[in-house]
Amino acid sequence: MRFLSVALLCLASTVSGDLRAASQPRNNFQVRQRNAAVPFQTAAAIYMEPSDFNYQGLKQQRQGAYDNFLRSNIDNEQDKRNFNNEAGKDMLPFRSYEAAASDVSGTVQTKIPDGAPGPVITANPGEQTLYPLRWNNPHASELEVNVWIMNIPGRGAENPVVVPIRRPTCSGEGHQDNVFSFVIPTNFNDLGASIPGFTGCKKEGDCVLQVYAHSVEPRTYSMGIPLVVTGTVAPSTATALTIQPAKTDVGMDLGQLPRDICLPSTDPRADIPVAVPRAARLVSDVFNHAYQNSDYSPYSGQQPEAISRNLQASAIISMIPANQGELGKALLQQTKPNVAAFAANLRNKVDNLVQKYEGITNKIIAQVGDKQMKNTATEGTNGVQKLETCFRCAEVGAVVAQRLTTNTYVPSFQLAGKALADAKAIVPAKYAGLVSDTGVVQIYQAVLNDLAGEFQRAATMGLVYQPAVIKPAAGTMPDATDFKKRNAQGATDNGVYAANRAQATKKAAAAAVDQTIAKATGTIQSPLAQALSADGEVVLPPTDAKDAEIMADMDGYYTDAKCDNDAAPTDDCSGAKPLFAKSADGGLDVVEDSNSSSSSTNITTPIVAAVVAGVAVLALIGAGCFIKQRRSKQAQVTKVQTYQNTTSPVQNTTNNVVHPNMARV
Predict the structure, then answer these.
(1) Is the pLDDT of residue 349 over 60?
(2) What's the CA gap between 590 and 650, in Å, rounded?
(3) Which of 82, 137, 481, 615 shows the smallest number of beta carbons within 10 Å?
């Protein structure tokens, strides 16, 4: 077994961002362990530092909030460009520039070194590799691992082949320190039987290990690591490419998905034992942000057939009442203001009901899960990595028992026996749909069921589920205006011209998936469904369950806290302050000094300049202008967490080290 750390950062009271490796490139990729009750087993963790994509806002974030820059989700990072002047770029699959298989681009500041601990991850087929993770904001998520083969003759990096090696499994769920493992299938070096000219993953640039996660927010997370696979590559015998096609989004047909809730991280079925190559699912995340939804995203990974119904439901309830994207929202507001208003109202209904169900679920966990359902396990066949003992520690691979209860961190889970009976006694009668007939606490499926009538009404207005748009090659998707808010003559127009041009592509993507709402909600009428869908108004019945806590900044608008600098370890997680603020035109201002009145540079509309004080910025948060809708209600700040100050890397105790950032057992 090997160990490779991919941990994450400390969580300060106002610091956002979510998932990154346990190291920072600027600190030579040395692992800094934080708040883990069970130690991680590696000294260094390499990965490709994200590109800045030539976005001025990302350059500002990398300079003033480096840790936030490393760990932020793709949806938030697409916000940080000048929509009038800067061409939009796709960040998937690895947050590298134009899907690069290495960090050679000039848009990457800190490179993986040629010497130790770089320049690649080395993996042996059939041997498990451990990845310790740290979620800064530990959203309930599903995490998968795929190998991208970038060097196939005649296809190259623009048309890669993907080999999924780990199915989507539970991750996060309020636990900041997680561990998972993956295995390169033993037949990987024999893929020349299906791929003409296959020469394996033998040097930097040949292959990339993609760690992809999708949260129930729902938002997209991804990182890439140059990969070398050891062993002898069998001579290629294939005369034609024989691979599976890329898998497709199931849309509303949730019955096509394999399970109600996520697959446990420690489930033996998580590892895919046989390498089966398929065409890459080339998702355009910049298209989604520009023309579909600038707040959230549909599942955009490589295994849409393997996610849970719960995760797909979270995408459906967000992608139907979508704002139509940063460029598309002006078109909708101008041409169909009533539809825009309905979508915004439905979005609020979704958010309110999700938070209500999360509050009840937190109460179930406190009174039932924490008392009757604690578990533990070891990750990996050799049992080397111990896990903590807590509610769902085994399911997410948690090495710390503490669970944060913030909005979107709350899990869905299975109940049985006494635990099921006790939980049902907690749930108010009108919210009984939260727990299914089979004992599944199903937050997002329940919201989908309860608001079925509203989603039906949305469909009559043209608001349907919007899946990820697929592009023809791995680089940025072609666009009439390069995703800028300019018309055919080059004049600024708030995105209307470009959005009009994108309508056919949007409609084709939506038409390609099942839009039958009844397939997503079934025939069972929940206690709330009729009341919530009767006249379009939602008045939620009272309950004594506290709604989930709301994190103040999940959108990457703040600088780092003091504890976010691995080069100067400290337990002091204060010091975060606004780096960006929403301007009058809806763009982003760079706040040069949030503690006093000062000028700010607008990265979206250069003509606009604003005077932004820290107090004014915080007022915007409370007004719901500074962060996206789900986070703006009852904005509360999560308590500052105290982190273990581990200043030195974890030492390997094995003698047979095969690579500087991994140790074999």
Answers:
(1) yes
(2) 38
(3) 615
Token pair, residue 532, equals 């919530």
- State which amino acid sits at residue 390: C
User: In this predicted model, what pLDDT tens digit does every residue of 571-605 receive, in sequence order?
Assistant: 787 888 888 887 666 567 777 654 433 334 556 54
Between residues 610 and 461, the one the model is more confident about:
461
At residue 303's C-alpha, the angle toward residues 302 and 304, to 5°, is 110
User: Residues 65-72: what's their mean pLDDT?
Assistant: 90
Residue 250 near residue 229 (C-beta atoms within 8 A): no
Find the mean pLDDT for residues 558-575: 82
- Work out the percent of the chain whose per-residue pLDDT is above 90: 64
What pLDDT does 372 receive?
Answer: 96
pLDDT of residue 45: 81
Q: What is the pLDDT of residues 419-453, one digit of tens each?
A: 999 999 999 988 999 999 999 999 999 999 999 99
Contact indicator for 8, 22 with CB cutoff of 8 Å: yes
3-state class percentages of the chain: helix first, strand second, coil last, to nearest 5: 30, 15, 55
Q: Residue 478's CB: how many other CB atoms inside 10 A?
A: 10
CB atoms within 10 A of CB 432: 14
Instruction: Find the Cα–Cα–Cα–Cα dihedral 294, 298, 301, 307, rounded to 10°.
Output: 150
**Whole-angstrom Cα distance, residue 95 to residue 209?**
13
Give the span between the Cα atoms of 121 and 662, in whole angstroms. 8
Q: What integer pLDDT is reported at residue 23 of this predicted model? A: 81
Q: How far apart are CA 124 and CA 262, in angstroms?
A: 28
Q: Which residues lie across from 148 on neighbouring strands? A: 162, 208
pLDDT at 533 over 80: no
Determine the Cα–Cα distance for residues 165 and 163; give it in Å rounded to an integer: 6
Helical packing angle, 452-460 and 443-450, nearest 10°:
60
Could you write out the DSSP letters of every residue in 442-507? -HHHHHHHHTHHHHHHHHHTT----PPPBPSSSSPPP-TTTT-SB-TTS-B-TTHHHHHHHHHHHH
Q: For residues 212 and 223, give the distance between their C-alpha atoms in angstroms, rounded to a whole number.
A: 7
Q: Are 573 and 643 in contact (CB under 8 A)?
A: yes
Can you tell me the distance from the alpha carbon of 480 to that of 502, in angstroms, rounded to the nearest whole number?
8
Q: How many residues in the chain?
A: 665
Cis peptide before 119 (omega within 30 of 0): yes
Q: What is the pLDDT of residue 567?
A: 82
Q: Are 160 and 149 in contact (CB under 8 A)?
A: yes
**Mean pLDDT of all residues in the chain?**
83
Which tokens is 561 given? 């806290």
